[in-house]
């Protein structure tokens, strides 16, 4: 179990959609996302795709609220997600590792993904507040990120966006879904 990586899982899913692009427009896109996470393998059909897209919107709303500094909204949305996707921890031991916790080994891919990401975001907010969530400040991007810099100075999702800040181009030719500059108020 690595809760920090589960917060990253949420960011990865949210960033599969930008205004003009959607990596989860078909099953192939979902397979590509999950190929990075072999422990989340399982049956994939249109039902799972639809559920993952719905989960993505819930996670985006949480992260965008957090990035805006709206703690109450982020937490309320996240608590709702936690109720709908309860965690079922199990102790496991394999590959020479000691006993460690696994979450939700059974259930559909969307259910397991939801439980993990909800726990990851909850652990992040419990430990750090909402201050590390960010929305890329580059025009035409719209991706979210988790700022792990020591002084929380990150404003862009990637080096390419940072390098082109002030220029119209960004990481990809997409329009922003939300245009609130990250960290504008320095909160
Ligand atoms: Zn960006």
Automatic annotation (TrEMBL):
Pfam families named in the record:
ABATE (PF07336), zf-CGNR (PF11706)
Zinc finger CGNR domain residues are: 132-169
Q: Which domain of life is it from?
A: Bacteria
Which SUPFAM superfamilies does the UniProt entry name for this protein?
A: Jann2411-like
Q: What is this protein called?
A: Putative RNA-binding Zn ribbon-like protein
Q: Which organism is it from?
A: Actinomadura livida
């Amino acid at each position: 179990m690595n809760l920090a990586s589960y917060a990253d899982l949420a960011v990865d899913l949210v960033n599969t959609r930008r205004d003009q692009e959607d990596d989860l427009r078909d099953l192939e896109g979902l397979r590509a996302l999950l190929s990075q996470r072999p422990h989340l393998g399982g049956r994939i059909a249109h039902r799972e795709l639809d559920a993952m897209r719905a989960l993505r919107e819930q996670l985006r709303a949480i992260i965008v609220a957090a990035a805006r500094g709206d703690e109450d909204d982020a937490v309320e949305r996240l608590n709702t997600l936690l109720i709908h996707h309860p965690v079922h921890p199990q102790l496991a031991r394999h590959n020479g590792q000691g006993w460690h916790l696994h979450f939700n080994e059974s259930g559909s891919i969307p259910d397991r993904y939801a439980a993990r990401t909800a726990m990851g975001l909850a652990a992040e907010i419990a430990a750090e507040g909402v201050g590390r969530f960010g929305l890329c400040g580059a025009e035409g991007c719209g991706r979210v990120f988790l700022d792990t810099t020591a002084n929380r100075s990150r404003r862009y999702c990637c080096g390419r966006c940072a390098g082109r800040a002030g220029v119209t181009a960004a990481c990809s030719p997409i329009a922003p879904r939300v245009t609130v500059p990250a960290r504008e108020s320095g909160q």
